[in-house]
Design brief:
Elements (H helix, E strand, L loop, with lengths): L2 E4 L6 H4 L1 H15 L7 E3 L6 E3 L15 H19 L7 E5 L5 E5 L1 H24 L10 H29 L3 H19 L6 H32 L10 H8 L3 H17 L9 H7 L2 H26 L9 H23 L4 H26 L6 H34 L13 H4 L1 H15 L5 H24 L12 H27 L14 H19 L2 H15 L3
Parallel strand pairs: 1-4
Antiparallel strand pairs: 2-3, 4-5
Helix pairs in contact: 2-3, 2-5, 3-4, 3-5, 4-5, 4-11, 4-14, 4-19, 4-20, 5-6, 6-7, 6-11, 7-9, 7-10, 9-11, 10-11, 10-13, 11-13, 11-14, 12-13, 12-18, 13-14, 13-17, 13-18, 14-16, 14-17, 14-19, 14-20, 16-18, 16-19, 17-18, 17-19
């Protein structure tokens, strides 16, 4: 891999951040185009009128309430395709620094892979929301009619702002830029969760998510500030950076407290127990596409932050006494995956059930992070082992967009007829919409980890990685494998298998209701039509199956992203 260092707005700067500039152009387009009309400005003391365009009577096209959704979907899809195209023919690492050498952003396979996750989830949510947010007739000039149509613009501006914040998190190499990106994305999601404020669920979920999220962000920011106070640097790595401070100073009390506070902040982002209590209410009150974004893109953003902080800054190979945070992370992973699956067993609301399922998946990913840290302690096989488990983790985050977001989109179609909030509303779906029922069943089986779907491959890769670390140390050190020589992370792999078995029950329960129960009274006919949201569901189904039976190409791309993170060139 070649490497280039440039300053902001120097030659090559725009090309390096092309997907982000597309989003910025999209934001300005959404702000300006819906407000354009035939307004004119009169020059004072004259009768000369100059076209002003902002305001006045709008034309047929720019007053269409579906226009913001179409614009947002196009710009998000273009950003997604540009980020994806970066992997064609190899990628050059680009470091964007200030004039004094401070690195702000890094464009490489790792950051681009997470941008693919973010833009892919947001573009699918945007496409699906064109049908999810109905508009009144353009001839309705009442206050409520005008307000309802104006909301279309607000929703998609928030979606694109969220994508811009997430991309800043993916590219950041500085604590300040990391926090700016986190808050830009977080404030957008707070409003998106409460966007359906006319419903009691929307108001309650938005308020809870905002309060808990604000507290978690404050705690995380305090941890970041303690790191800066201790080291005097905001940089992740490089000369004088945080990574060097950990390597030279060891694990002192102040950075240990800072890591604990940061873990609280990111624990909320990934919905890890016990920081997950606002997640079920947020998922239940938000629209289906927004809940899908929370379960996929927002979760990936939290895992990205943990990867940066725990594996780049406070890597166990750099830190004395690293077993402290490794054990804490392992316990958090065990509690999270177990609590999530047990809570999902008793849930009768499909969206809350998927929220607790998302908590369980956060536990699986935290277990993978723990394994990466353990591998880093043994230099004999650290590079290969770390790369394998980070590859599995990134692969899991990519395919999670396919089946987790797809499941929420199916529920969103049910929400269009005021359903989707109880298991009974899924009753008889196989009779009403056979293809939708089959799609939902595929998503549930992939979440459960049933072969040959992509969910099975992702769980298998993570479990194999954790088992590898458990037996790897014994084989490297002694050559003879005894049960007593297994590392304690082996129990995380065993717990992951047991929890996956538990999850099969509540995933199969959804299939039972869809195929063997009768529809609720008054819901016997076909569901409301919606071409865009059905297209998004179809895309999720196809990728869920394809990445299960043909995962080699995606694994290769995820491996290159893991190499970029671990600096294996």
């Amino acid at each position: 891999m070649t490497e280039t260092t440039i300053e902001p707005f120097a030659e090559g700067f725009v090309m390096a951040l092309a997907p982000e500039f597309v989003l910025v152009i999209g934001l300005f387009t959404l702000i300006l185009v819906p407000n354009m009309g035939d307004a004119k400005f009169r020059i004072p003391l004259t009768q000369i009128r100059i076209p002003w365009f902002l305001g006045g009577k709008r034309g047929t096209l720019d007053r269409d309430p579906r226009l913001p959704g179409l614009f947002a979907s196009i710009f998000l899809t273009v950003s997604f395709l540009m980020a994806l195209a970066s992997f064609v023919g190899g990628m050059e690492r680009v470091n964007i620094t200030t004039a004094n050498g401070t690195e702000l952003f890094r464009v490489d396979e790792f950051s681009r892979m997470f941008e693919v996750i973010f833009y892919g989830a947001l573009s699918l949510a945007s496409i699906a929301s064109i049908d999810r947010l109905p508009a009144t007739s353009t001839a309705d000039r009442s206050l409520s009619g005008l307000y309802n149509n104006r909301r279309q613009v607000d929703f998609y501006i928030l979606l694109m702002t969220c994508g811009l914040g997430m991309s800043v998190v993916a590219l950041s190499q500085d604590l300040f830029m990391l926090f700016i990106g986190l808050e830009l994305a977080s404030f957008s999601t707070y409003v998106l969760v409460a966007f359906m404020k006319e419903t009691p669920e929307g108001t309650e979920s938005g308020m809870k998510y905002f309060i808990v999220g604000s507290v978690a962000s404050g705690v995380g920011l305090y941890g970041l500030s303690l790191l800066y106070l201790w080291s005097g640097s905001l940089q992740f790595d490089g000369p004088g950076g945080l990574s060097e401070a950990f390597r030279t100073s060891g694990m002192e009390p102040l950075p240990l407290v800072a890591l604990g506070l940061i873990l609280v902040g990111f624990g909320f982002k990934v919905s890890a127990a016990p920081f997950h209590f606002a997640a079920p209410d947020a998922y239940a009150g938000a629209t289906g596409p927004v809940a899908g974004v929370l379960a996929t893109a927002s979760k990936a953003m939290g895992i990205l932050g943990l990867l940066r902080i725990l594996l780049v800054v406070a890597s166990p190979e750099n830190t004395e006494g690293s077993a402290v945070w490794l054990v804490a992370l392992g316990v958090l992973a065990a509690v999270t995956m177990t609590w999530g699956n047990l809570a999902a067993l008793g849930s009768t609301n499909p969206k809350r059930m998927l929220a607790y399922s998302s908590v369980a998946h956060a536990g699986y990913m935290l277990a993978a992070l723990t394994a990466v840290g353990v591998w880093s302690e043994d230099t004999a096989f650290a590079d290969d082992a770390s790369m394998a488990v980070v590859t599995a983790l990134i692969f899991h985050l990519v395919v999670l967009v396919c089946f987790k977001l797809g499941a929420f989109l199916v529920l969103s179609i049910l929400e269009s007829e005021k359903g989707g909030h109880t298991l009974e509303s899924l009753g008889g779906l196989a009779k009403r919409e056979p293809l939708l029922a089959v799609a939902m069943f595929i998503f549930m089986m992939s979440l459960a980890g049933v072969p040959p779907l992509s969910g099975f491959v992702s769980k298998l890769l993570v479990i194999m990685g954790i088992v590898k670390v458990a037996v790897g140390g014994a084989l490297v050190n002694g050559g003879t494998l005894n049960f007593s020589d297994l590392h304690w992370v082996w129990y995380l792999a065993l717990l992951m298998v047991l929890n996956s078995a538990i999850s099969v029950f509540y995933y199969l329960r959804v299939g039972l209701v869809m195929f063997f129960h009768e529809p609720e009274e008054g819901r016997e006919g076909r569901l409301p039509s919606g071409k865009s949201i059905r297209f998004a569901v179809l895309a999720c189904v196809m990728t869920t199956i394809y990445f299960g039976v043909g995962a080699d190409q995606l694994i290769t791309v995820c491996q290159s992203a893991a190499n970029a993170l671990l600096n294996v060139w």
